[in-house]
Amino acid sequence: MQTEALKKLVLDIVSKKTETQTVEVKSAKNGCPTRLFDTLSSFSNQDEGGIIIFGIDELAQFEITGVYDAQDLQKKVTEQCKQMEPKVRALFTLCDINGTTVVSAEIPGVEISERPVFYKGVGRVKGSYIRVGEADELMSEYEI
């Protein structure tokens, strides 16, 4: 994603005050979110993948709060991506909005033959998610 496209997406989300089927926002002002595996799994398990945007606080009416440290955030998100099976390879983009840094992680959709992508820490049955609207939901046995 290009920087300008990220800026446009952020401003669109802030104005609409909602996440979507392919966009999740996470506050990362005080550190990297520690539990991303549900979103990593759900985005990987849909054809179009998805984008996690760090630096927007959903609980504060989608306020742009920025990230604590863009470099460390990318490192910690990558570490969480490596805990997925198969591994998730995020593509990061940074942009500055009114002096505040926002980071996006594009999560590619995985070929259907490679699915489901799941969190290795809890296994295939408890670690496979699907995106439903703006929510990450645990897959049923049938969906797996």
How do the strands line up in the largest sheet?
Answer: 1-2-7-6
SSE string: HEHEEEHEEEEHEE
Number of helices: 4
Shape: globular
Label the structural class: alpha+beta
Q: First CA to last CA: what distance? A: 30 Å
Return residue spans where pLDDT drops below 50 for at least 5 consecutive residues.
Answer: none
Cα-based radius of gyration, to the nearest Å: 15 Å
Mean pLDDT across all residues, rounded? Answer: 95
Largest sheet: 4 strands, mixed
* Binned strand content: 25-35%
Task: State the share of residues found in helices, binned by percent.
Answer: 25-40%
Task: Please provide the count of β strands.
Answer: 10
Topology:
Elements: H1 3-16, E1 23-26, H2 37-44, E2 50-54, E3 56-57, E4 63-64, H3 70-81, E5 84-85, E6 91-97, E7 100-107, E8 118-119, H4 123-127, E9 129-132, E10 135-138
Parallel strand pairs: 1-2
Antiparallel strand pairs: 2-7, 3-4, 5-8, 6-7, 9-10
Describe the protein's architecture and organization.
The chain is 27% helix and 28% strand. With 144 residues, it is of the alpha+beta class. A 4-stranded mixed sheet has the order 1-2-7-6, with helices on both faces. Strand 3 and strand 4 form a beta hairpin. The chain is globular, with a radius of gyration of 15 Å. It starts with a helix and ends in a 6-residue tail after the last strand. The model has no long low-confidence stretch (mean pLDDT 95).
